[in-house]
Amino acid sequence: MDLGLAGKVALVSGGSSGIGLAIARDLVREGAVVSIGGRDAGRLAKARDGIAADLGAEVGTRVLDLRDNDAARAWADDAAAEHGALNIVVSNAGGPPAGPTGAFGPDGYRDAVDLAMVSHIAFVQAGLPHLLRSGWGRVLMVASETIRDLIPEYALSAIARSGLAAYAKTLVHELGPGDVTVNVLAPGYTATDALLNGLGEGADVDAETARIAARAGIPLGRVARPEEVAAAGTFLLSARASFVTGTVQVVDGGRSLGM
Q1: Contact at 8 Å (CB) between 258 and 148?
Q2: Count of C-beta atoms within a 10 Å radius of residue 54
Q3: C-alpha to C-alpha distance for 214 and 211, rounded to whole angstroms
Q4: Helix crossing, 41-55 with 18-29: angle to 10°?
Q5: Does the keyword Transit peptide apply (predicted)?
Q6: Where are the beta strands (DSSP E) in 88-179?
Q7: What is the largest CA-CA distance in the chain?
Q8: Residue 118 and residue 113: Cα distance in Å, rounded?
Q9: 14 and 66 in contact (C-beta within 8 Å)?
Q10: Where in the chain are the domains?
Q11: Nearest Cα residue to 119 out of 156, 165, 86, 71
Q12: Which of 30, 104, 200, 203 could lock onto 108 through a cystine, CB 3.0 to 4.6 A?
């Protein structure tokens, strides 16, 4: 299936591992020009070298913290200047710490909102003028299933990320006619480094993740693989998803009971 992504210029933040890296790999396979960003230069280099070895393609890298709005804007501007256009912005960043509402004071809430909402919006705003100028654009903000179905032990995630849905739905009405779409990807429990590293050294990964799935009530009986979540995100970034905008796409193995 041709997703119409050949030659499109894409930025993927949080692209050194997990879901971000899996999306970047999908975009490379589809012929897009990709740059990945992240805070750790070593992890970015490893991801870049892995893509080159596996897919025979070069990707750009940018060391930055998505909360640094000036750095995010410079990344978008530089990509557009280098390649003549910018078409795709994937905003992806780490999540706030787990815990109930009472586990955090005001500063904890401010930090969570800055990381899980404001940094995404700032990155989108940095890229949006270039997307509009190119006449074809896709925005994908990677959040969490907590945006749609609350999980009490992840209070900060639900509170901070829920604003992304409101931002996406408001923005699509402001954009009006054209071929620029804005969507939110909301993955459930996924076998990213953050989850796997929490299992402890020497853990039986299959057994432990199965226990996580059982405890969370995931009907499929396992957690997601990053590439499974990325597949949904890559479709939303594609030309074939040209009439899909303002949505929150949950990828949670059927865990959510909300309609």
Answers
A1: yes
A2: 11
A3: 5
A4: 30
A5: no
A6: 88-91, 137-142
A7: 53
A8: 6
A9: yes
A10: 9-188+224-250
A11: 71
A12: 104
Q: 138 near 236, Cβ under 8 Å?
A: yes
The SS3 assignment for 192 reads: coil
Helix and strand totals (H; E) in the chain: 9, 7
Q: Are 116 and 92 in contact (CB under 8 A)?
A: no
What backbone phi and psi angles, to 5 degrees, belong to 19? -65, -40
Helix-strand-coil percent breakdown of the chain, rounded to 5? Answer: 50, 15, 35
9-188+224-250 folds as Rossmann fold (3.40.50)
The tokens for 111 are 């930090």
Cβ(224)–Cβ(189) under 8 Å?
yes
Give Cβ neighbours of residue 12 (< 8 Å, ≥ 6 apart): 20, 21, 23, 24, 27, 34, 35, 36, 37, 90, 92
Do residues 251 and 217 lie in contact, with contact meaning Cβ atoms separated by under 8 Å? no
d(CA 132, CA 142): 21
Mean pLDDT split into 10-residue runs, the chain, 259 residues:
96 97 98 98 98 98 97 98 98 94 97 97 98 98 92 93 96 96 96 83 85 92 96 98 97 88
Look up residue 16 and give its two tokens: 């050194």
